[in-house]
């Protein structure tokens, strides 16, 4: 049985990795364009439909989503062995996960804004460069420094999927848009469901470097397919890139997310953590001041302050907190020894296979969520997602004593997340100008990222403080897990409550010409 220190270290690393996975999982959904294309856009889509290879656009972007999700699960089977494999300490090894989280959170909004300004196809191809370089560097790494750099580069390439989904509206005819978005978004569920058991099997039977050599090959494959199949997408935004705004947003996010993710390890009252929180407040305040005064802001805060956008972002932040507990607690319960009385004694490979149905449920529910949004509006879908997520947590507290029961509850939670993440883009897209869709979605992702980071800290603290002693080792207690599930349930209900106040009707953005239809098409 691992020592208490190793268990807490692995818990911390798993917490940050699960956060990173869900942040990029969210990217697959939040970029969805929620407005039916205008007449001019339909003509553009028809033109692309006629070009050779146009039929491969959706499969290529779906494959990109699947591979992006697999990338995020590569290091899961290596978590407990990272210090040994990289000849370093547990705290240093945790940066292998933190680097991906920070790089992805900071660069994805920037990539989206650059895609609006200079073309999504160009930025899709540019995003494959750090993905390839990072995978290759990790494949060659035998120490912690190049591994951290490589994982950071992989994080920088995670903008490839949201860029692709945002391009679908320009590349796919209106009558196929809903199904295309659903397929590409669901590819993240497929990748997340398959990636963990595949990575565990490879790591168990071969050298761990094989994982990253395979990642390098898959990244090159995606780059080639994107170059050959994806056509240029019309540029909608004008103006210059806000370099100062990008630097300010990135710096503030790094300080905030680093403080939250490392607080438990470095000490919440330590000078480093207090300093990071203080720096985040100052930098983000100055960033907001700048964004309100520049002519071409990175994020238009005036648009963000509109009630429909503001409440959607607030609900996203709380939901990001609420959805996290299941992704941390369920794997722990599945793998803890049966001698605890509540652990289910599963191996890493078995745990990955048992959690796979959750990803598949997200794939199956995505088109149903799109239909619900079309019939009743995305606000109803977002509220429903929060309520279903809360119901999943309720089931977890009742069924956590059996493998089948826990898997069932996790699937219900996944259904709630799929509904909610499918509704958010429809709400955001219906309230912002077309030229600001990437920036608005990027800001929405930041909200979820912050919520998930705080959830990782809070739930991790609960599990590390509420423990039992077994064979001379400290393990998270059953009451600790139940407390974490209750916290997740409460935050899911709070998210639904906030969403219920989102105003409906015409946002008045002027993003559509007069007479053009407007409808929600959520993935």
TrEMBL record:
Per the record, the major location class is: membrane
What positions does the domain Major facilitator superfamily (MFS) profile occupy? 57-506
Question: Which residue windows are transmembrane per the record?
Answer: 57-80, 92-110, 122-142, 180-204, 210-229, 241-260, 266-290, 310-329, 349-368, 380-401, 407-434, 446-468, 480-502
UniProt keywords, alphabetically: Membrane, Transmembrane, Transmembrane helix
Could you name the domain of life of the organism this protein comes from? Answer: Bacteria
- InterPro entries, sorted: MFS, MFS_dom, MFS_trans_sf
Listed PROSITE patterns: MFS
Q: Give membrane topology per the record.
A: Multi-pass membrane protein
Q: Which Gene3D superfamilies match?
A: MFS general substrate transporter like domains, Multidrug resistance protein D
Under Pfam families, the record lists: MFS_1
Protein's name according to its UniProt entry: MFS transporter
Taxonomic lineage from the root = Bacteria, Bacillati, Actinomycetota, Actinomycetes, Mycobacteriales
């Amino acid at each position: 049985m691992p020592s208490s220190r190793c268990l807490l270290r692995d818990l911390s690393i798993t917490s940050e990795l699960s956060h990173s996975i869900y942040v990029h999982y969210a990217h697959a959904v939040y970029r969805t364009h929620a407005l039916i294309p205008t007449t001019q856009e339909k003509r553009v889509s028809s033109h692309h439909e006629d070009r050779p290879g146009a039929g491969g656009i959706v499969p290529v972007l779906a494959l990109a989503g699947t591979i992006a999700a697999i990338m995020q699960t590569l290091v899961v089977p290596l978590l407990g062995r990272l210090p040994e494999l990289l000849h370093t300490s547990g705290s240093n090894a945790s940066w292998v996960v933190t680097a991906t989280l920070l790089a992805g959170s900071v660069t994805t909004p920037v990539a989206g804004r650059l895609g609006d300004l200079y073309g999504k196809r160009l930025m899709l191809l540019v995003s494959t460069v750090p993905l390839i370089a990072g995978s290759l560097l990790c494949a060659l790494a035998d120490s912690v420094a190049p591994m951290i750099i490589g994982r950071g580069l992989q994080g920088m390439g995670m903008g490839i999927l949201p860029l692709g989904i945002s391009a679908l509206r320009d590349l796919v005819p209106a009558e196929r848009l809903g199904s295309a978005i659903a397929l590409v978004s669901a590819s993240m569920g497929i990748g997340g469901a398959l990636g963990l058991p595949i990575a565990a099997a490879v790591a168990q039977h071969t050298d761990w470097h094989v994982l990253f050599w395979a990642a390098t090959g898959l990244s090159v494959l995606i780059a080639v397919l994107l170059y050959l199949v994806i056509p240029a997408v019309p540029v909608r935004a004008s103006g210059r890139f806000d370099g100062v705004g990008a630097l300010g947003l990135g710096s503030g996010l790094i300080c905030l997310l680093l403080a939250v993710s490392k607080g438990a390890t470095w000490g919440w009252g330590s000078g480093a953590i207090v300093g990071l929180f203080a720096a985040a407040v100052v930098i983000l305040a100055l960033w907001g001041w700048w964004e309100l005064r520049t002519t071409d802001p990175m994020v238009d805060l005036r648009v963000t302050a509109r009630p429909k956008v503001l409440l959607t972002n607030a609900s996203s932040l709380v939901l990001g907190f609420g959805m996290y507990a299941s992704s941390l607690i369920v794997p722990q319960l599945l793998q803890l020894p049966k001698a605890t009385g509540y652990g289910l004694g599963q191996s890493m490979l078995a745990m990955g296979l048992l959690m796979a149905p959750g990803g598949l449920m997200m794939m199956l529910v995505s088109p149903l969520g799109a239909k619900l949004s079309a019939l009743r509006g995305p606000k109803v879908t977002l509220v429903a997602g929060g309520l279903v997520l809360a119901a999943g947590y309720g089931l977890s507290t009742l069924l956590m004593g059996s493998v089948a029961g826990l898997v069932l509850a996790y699937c219900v939670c996944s259904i709630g997340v799929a509904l909610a993440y499918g509704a958010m883009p429809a709400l955001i897209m219906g309230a912002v100008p077309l030229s600001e869709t990437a920036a608005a979605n990027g800001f929405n992702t930041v909200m979820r990222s912050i919520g998930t980071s705080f959830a990782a800290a809070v739930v991790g603290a609960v599990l590390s403080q509420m423990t039992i002693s077994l064979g001379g080792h400290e393990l998270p207690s059953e009451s600790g897990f139940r407390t974490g599930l209750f916290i997740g349930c409460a935050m899911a209900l709070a998210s639904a409550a906030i969403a219920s106040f989102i105003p409906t009707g015409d946002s008045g953005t002027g993003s559509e010409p007069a007479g053009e239809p407007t409808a929600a098409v959520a993935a």
